[in-house]
Amino acid sequence: MTTLLVTVATVVLAEPAMTLVHRFLFHGPLWCEHESHHAHPTARHLVRNDLLWIWPLLGSAALVIFGGPVLAGLGIGGAFYVAAYIFAHDGVAHGRFPVPGWIRRLTLFRIIAQTHRLHHRSRVGAPPFGVYLAPLEYRWRLLVHYTPPTKVCGPTPAAL
pTM to 2 decimals? Predict the structure, then answer.
């Protein structure tokens, strides 16, 4: 029961945490890796940005394998959130892999896709930075004091 409660809590808390990671790390020190996503948002092949998911997934696997009930719950919740994020962001919002039309037409996913288009208004992104809570972030004007990254990244291949 402890593992289940920690898993659910992790999934719920992961979205606001990921919103801050996206804003302050992906659009900050990790911009050169994340830029590939803004340059090729609908790419059907791997881009450098996709590699950013390796670390949380490896961490989740380690927590499940080596941790007790609480750490396993963190690992399961973290992995579940990453899967849900990739599904909504890469699958629904960007069409990087097939998602059935009936799922795309669900109100939740239509709103996610519409709100995420606001983030891609420019090549360097703009608020909102979240996925599942992006409509609230946009409505409440959170993180609106945004300065786009100015870091110049060297030429990188679009695909790995």
Answer: 0.86
